[in-house]
Amino acid sequence: MDYEKVEALAKKEKPKLIIAGASAYPRIIDFKRFSDIAKKVGAYLMVDMAHIAGLIAAGLHPSPVGFADVITSTTHKTMRGPRGGFILCNKDLATKIDKAVFPGIQGGPLMHVIAAKAVCFKEALDPKFKDYQKQVLKNARALAAELKKDDGIDLVTGGTDNHLLIVDLRGKVVTGKEIEGNLDRVRITVNKNMIPNDPQPASLTSGIRIGTPAITTRGLKEDEMRKIARWITEIINFPNNPEIEKNIRMQVEDLILRYPVPGGEIK
Question: How many CB atoms lie within 10 A of CB 232?
């Protein structure tokens, strides 16, 4: 991320609001730098930390608290809670935001989701949650390192500092959509994702996005990441090959049956 360009653009356009956050950025975000830029142009700073909230809660990514005027986040993704969200803000904005949410855009509260969020936040205070987030990072880096062994596979920014990585497929004769479908057939879930200056439309893309929180929750570690990376690489190099897909699917199913979803082993 080029903060000098961000500052130059902010000084040129004089925005009232700067939004910092991403759903496909694998590096550390400097929230203090964004705050400094916002102050220079008299703008509010809003941070969307939905993807990295769990890492922030565990102290493994810098926090936007103290730098942003408004912070939004989901409670799923790296927080491992229910599908939902929350908003943090400065005191002078609290009343306006509360009114905008209710009665502005929401009605009756979902009490079961509120209860689930409480459990989610309580779990985030447990030392085991930090251990989990550390493993999420280790797994992402192991996955990235193994994928980079293939000369035709590039990673956007060259690697990852968080829970996700973006694979640049321009060195291969495939699209993100195609590989997403191929991997889905072998029980590996990724999503097609655009890359910087992508020559393909959003419906096809030249990249895929891979994340490690879910498989880390199931207990997989670095050795398993290297296996998964090799399977992904084989699918990328030999797309739409039924025999290869059948072989990899059997291996994936054999592996994942040894790591049931927490609670799934209860009979």
Answer: 25
Q: Which two tokens stand for residue 15?
A: 């925005």
pLDDT tens digit string along 178-231?
Answer: 999 999 999 999 999 999 999 999 999 999 999 999 999 999 999 999 999 999
Q: Please name the helix (run of DSSP H) or strand (run of DSSP E) that holds residue 131, with its range, or none.
A: helix 127-147
102's tokens: 């209710």
Q: What angle do CA 55, 56, 57 make, to 5 degrees?
A: 90
Give the contacts of 67 (CB within 8 A, at least 6 positions apart). Answer: 31, 32, 34, 35, 45, 47
Q: Are strands 164-168 and 207-211 parallel, antiparallel or unpaired?
A: antiparallel
> SS3 for 155?
strand
Q: Which domains does the chain have, with CATH numbers?
A: 3-124 (3.40.640.10), 130-256 (3.90.1150.10)
- Cα(44)–Cα(40) distance, integer angstroms: 11
Asked if 182 and 243 touch (Cβ cutoff 8 Å), the reply is no
Length of the chain: 267
pTM beyond 0.90: yes
